[in-house]
Amino acid sequence: MWSHRGSVSPTEEGLREMTQLVATYPQIFKRWLGPTIPVITLCHPDFVRSVLNASATITHKNMFLSRFLKPWLGDGLLLSRGDKWRHHRQMLTPAFHFNILKPYVKIFNKSVNIMHAKWQRLTSEGSTHLDMFEHISLMTLDSLQKCIFSFDSNCQESPSEYIAAILDLSTLVTKRYYQFFLYMDFLYYLTPEGRRFCRACDLVHDFTDAIIQERRRTLATQGIDDFLKIKTKSKSLDFIDVLLLSKDENGKELSDEDIRAEADTFMFGGHDTTASGLSWVLYNLARHPEYQEHCRKEVQELLRDREPKEIEWEDLAQLPFLTMCIKESLRLHPPAPFLSRHCIQDIVLPDGRIIPKGNICSINVFAIHHNPSVWSDPEVYDPFRFDPKNTQKRSPLAFIPFSAGPRNCIGQAFAMAEMKVVLALTLLRFCFLPDTEPRRQPDLILRAEHGLWLRVEPLE
Question: Where does the chain cross the membrane (predicted)?
Answer without folding.
Answer: none
